[in-house]
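Retry 2 of 3 after timeout on previous attempt. Resubmitting structure tokens to design endpoint.
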């Protein structure tokens, strides 16, 4: 039951060109930095990346975009990445914009074995074009397919050799739903603890969902957007 691998390079060793990958995190909080760096080093291409956002220039998924390793992004927010904008406008990158709650539910439903669901979000907009519409109790809903990515890359605060994960504060965002949705889930953690050290009531993702785990290093806790008030005002 020991799922520990040496490092990020070993963890992502079999991710092939053309893979679909869900990446945990919200903005730059709780993103799998080490796994992203390892993918950049390996040079895998034609990736479909599912993430709430597209990182920023020079960090996070932005590093994969720099190397032209991503062919498609499925995201809900992409406003902090100028390279992303230029790639989309030039036709080098395909984007599927998805409402944030719908994206979270697509992943959650995928992990729960639910192939599709109906939501009112997006009805009457481009989001609903070409999709099945149904009325329930006098309101129109659009059918959305769930997501089951080939791989899920997540970052946790603590983990154990069995793959049990605990996230810290706002890093417990898209990470749990990505972890449960992935066919192969890879977790990097800030702290590896012995089996039995985690209170079962505090485990956010049980190890049954995690295939590989390793202790990451050199984490950079960047701030996505900083606003500073002038002291003179």
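Retry 2 succeeded. Sequence:
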């Amino acid at each position: 039951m020991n799922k520990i691998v040496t490092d990020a390079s070993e963890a992502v060793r079999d991710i092939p060109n053309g893979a679909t990958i869900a990446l945990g995190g919200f903005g730059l909080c709780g993103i799998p930095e080490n796994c992203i760096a390892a993918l950049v080093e390996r040079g895998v291409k034609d990736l479909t990346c599912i993430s709430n956002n597209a990182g920023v220039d020079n960090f996070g998924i932005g590093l994969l975009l720099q190397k032209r390793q991503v062919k498609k992004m499925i995201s809900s927010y992409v406003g902090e990445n100028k390279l992303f904008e230029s790639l989309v406008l030039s036709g080098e990158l395909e984007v599927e914009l998805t409402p944030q709650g719908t994206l979270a539910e697509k992943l959650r439903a995928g992990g729960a074995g639910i192939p599709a669901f109906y939501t009112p979000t997006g009805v009457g907009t481009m989001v609903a074009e070409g999709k099945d519409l149904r009325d329930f109790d006098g309101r129109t809903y659009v059918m959305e397919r769930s997501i089951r990515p080939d791989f899920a890359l997540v970052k946790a605060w603590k983990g154990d050799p069995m793959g049990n994960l605990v996230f810290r504060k706002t890093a417990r965002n898209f990470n749990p739903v990505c972890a449960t949705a992935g066919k192969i889930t890879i977790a990097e953690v800030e702290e590896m603890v012995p089996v039995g050290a985690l209170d079962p009531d505090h485990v956010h993702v049980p190890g049954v969902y995690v295939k590989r785990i390793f202790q990451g290093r050199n984490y950079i806790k960047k701030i996505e957007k900083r606003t500073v008030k002038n002291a003179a005002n």
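Attempt log closed. The chain has six helices and eleven strands.
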